[in-house]
Amino acid sequence: MTQTIKHSPDEISITDFVKKIRSVSSYLKSKWLIILITSIAGGGLGLAYAILKKTVYTASSTFVLDDGNKSGGLNQYASLASMAGIDIGGGSAGGIFQNDNILELYRSRLMIEKTLLSEATFNGKKQQLIERYIDFNHLRDVWKQEDNNGDISFTGSSDNFSRKQDSIISKLVEVLNKQSLTVSKPDKKLSIIRVDVTNKDELFAKEFNLKLVANVNDFYKTTRTKKSNQNIQTLQFQADSVKRVLNNSINGVASAIDASPNANPSLQILRAPSQRKQIDVQASTAIYGEIVKNLELSKMSLRQETPLIQLIDSPILPLEKTKLNKLVGFFVGMLLASLSIVLILLLFRQSKLVPKA
């Protein structure tokens, strides 16, 4: 007894599939002229894009960072000092710069704004980096067309900037973060940081890279050692104050002795003023010695905590440049145009085959 296999209406056999492929192929062959013209036109557009697209320059800096956060060393002195209630800043060097947070510091508005507002020398003339960027990209012409306000200046303190000036800086920070600035660690196991700045303006890319690295590294060092510096300033102030008291006490002893140079040995009361001054001298001497010792420990701690930032490579002209090859642009344009016209033709054919309701 034979069984007949029934196919679902939605199923398609291999024969039908081959027929559809041949039908599509024949249809596209009949449209070869349209495809050819469109492909050549797309290649021409790709070639024009490659010619008109400006060269992009990349300025790169690499440096090694040693934040001085090591176990041992002065930590033993810090532990001893803490038992006496003295903080010399020799503990763990965590804080906001642990791990890879310094990478985010490079992308912060604070650092990018400070860099944009700094000056650099372009062709023998000093100019703000933000002014250089605005002039190169003809942004003032755009602002004049939008709101007839193209005479904006960015000199002076940023604290006194208007809402319009802050808005422009915020936009430039966003654009630079998305399109120009790349901060990374090429090897996660090493403490080497790479900063890349890409821009169509070669001189701007170089100067922006140099200024940004300098600003961030200076900010890092200052903030990283801020607590230790405050401790040193406090101890130095105390040491100077106690030293003045000690000097006054020494002068007081001499004055008391001079007041009674030939005191009667039977009158002990005459020796009381000089003895009281001598006690003050001894107390001040002991206090001054302890403060000086703690001050020196704090200075040692500061040297231990001060991060070492060693620049390895800095951008040097001419910078590395990226330019779209004309031949690549032509063939990519042809490929995209060919795929687009084929897809359009197939959709048009399918719409004609679908019966209207």
Automatic annotation (TrEMBL):
UniProt entry keywords in alphabetical sequence: Membrane, Transmembrane, Transmembrane helix
InterPro entries: Bact_polysacc_biosynth/exp
Statement: the UniProt record of this protein carries the keyword Thylakoid: no
Transmembrane segments: 32-52, 327-348
The UniProt record lists the keyword Membrane: yes
GO terms, molecular function: protein tyrosine kinase activity
GO cellular component, one term: plasma membrane
PANTHER family assigned to the protein according to its UniProt record, in alphabetical order: FERRIC ENTEROBACTIN TRANSPORT PROTEIN FEPE, TYROSINE-PROTEIN KINASE
Protein name: Chain length determinant protein
Native source species: Mucilaginibacter gossypii
